[in-house]
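Dear U.,

For the methods section draft, I wanted the exact inputs and outputs in one place so we can describe them consistently. I've listed the two proteins in the order they'll appear in the manuscript figures. Please don't edit the token lines directly; just add comments below if something needs changing.

First protein:
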Amino acid sequence: MLDRRFVADNIDLITENCCLRGASVDVARFAELDILRRQLQLDIDRLNQEAGRVSKSIGKVDPGERESLKAEGRRLREESSVLQSRQAEVLEES
């Protein structure tokens, strides 16, 4: 099996090789999906980092402000979960 990064970096070479072998593979689509997968991972990591920051700050704020921070943390985790589901779909398609 070829490394995803190698395929993304060598689209022309992979396409040519598939044609020589008579294989029907949409290498360009694979590359698009790989870019999307990597972008989703960056977004997921950013959201998780932000949720962690919010979670750590909950104990340091006034009780009145805690509920808004808890809601923000829940929102960030839900958004991350949605992106993780989308990423799983992209991985399945690629």
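Second protein (the one for the lower panel):
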Amino acid sequence: MTLSRPLLWFGACTGFFICGWLGWVALAAPTDQTSPVFLSIFFAMLLVVPALVVVSILPHISAPKSTLLAIVLAAFAMRLLLLGVDPFLSDDLYRCLWDGQVQRAGFDPYLAAPSDPALDDVASDAHWIEVRSQINHPEVPTVYPPLSQLLFRLAAHTESGWRLATLLLDMLVGVVIALALSRRGQDPRCAILWWWHPLPMLECAIGGHPEIAAVFLTTVAIFWLATSRSLLAAAALGAAIAAKLLPVGWVPLLVRAGGARVWIPLLVVLLVALVPFLGSDLGLATEGLREYGSSWYSGDLLYRPVGELLGLDPENRFSPGAQWLRGFLVLAWLAIAWHCRGLSPWRAFLVVSFAFALLSPTLHPWYLLWLLPAAVIERSWASLFLTWTILFQYLVLDNWRALGVWELPHGTRVLVFGLPLLLVIRHWRYGRVERDTIPG
């Protein structure tokens, strides 16, 4: 039997994807957290090309079931390969491990920062002493909500174990995307834009970011909302909020679609997640979150430029003007979330996530995991490109490790946001012209 040309192209792209990541691990992956990251990130970004080529020829590729299986198996195999790479892009992983061990030792992770001498007994051997020494901002208590803490307690025993857990959640997000595409009459193989995208591969299989748990739960919630199962969606969204606070932005959408009855499963799930921590002091439990919200910023599009334009010092956490600006950006995002409550679920997921990326004073690359599922389903090229260009934010690490200065190289904002915003403007103008030229 002769294979069709599109199927041969698919095979070539699959081979390129696999060989590319094998080569990346062998030649481009840093060996530790002191190695330069520029070339590593650049070559990882190039490995999105096979997914883009496959998507462009999908209508002509036969054997849908076998090619979908090949996509999934290649994605899973390369993620397993990445488990052997040092978590060179972030040290958040060590906070997850530490919080889990603190709970298993019988302590409340909200009541003491990692550097607190009261937790010296938690570092009971050389392994946990090393984990403790790797934690960023050890003087700040944990910022992770209750459900994330429970996941740490259950799964964050070892670095490889936790990374495997986030890897599996990452793969499951792709499954939900494929199911959603199929329900919409689209080709489920387009989920390749998630499965073969370097962002989730780097952030989950290597970085072990707990963000993926809340992203998975929110994606499930939106899927159920889009299929008119609002009570299940409410339960999933409640769990997502208990894992990360960002999903509150989709509560207006949920209530608009499901009515007042959705509050019951939403609040029940939230309360169940809170039960193990009901004895925590509220002030201490929110100290880390307040510290993060008041003084951290990185990779923003608007916060620092607008602050400087207004004559403010965005880096001064005690500046009332800077605090007001942060508050205004949060309110602007909540207003957009409220305005989007009448959109279709996947469109609302897309717009609110995109707005968060534009308005947040802090934008780490893994925050764009929120945007990618809806970008794939809605086929928003502006959003898809932003989830790719956001990896340029990691250039800050070379300055940090060489000079001890946390500052992005000049021009990084243009690299990250330039093309996506141009695509947004083009789409808006094209849509406006189209509306103006359609009679009636």
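Candidate sentences for the figure legend, describing the second protein: The mean pLDDT is 91. DSSP finds 23 helices and no strands in the chain.

Thanks,
Y.
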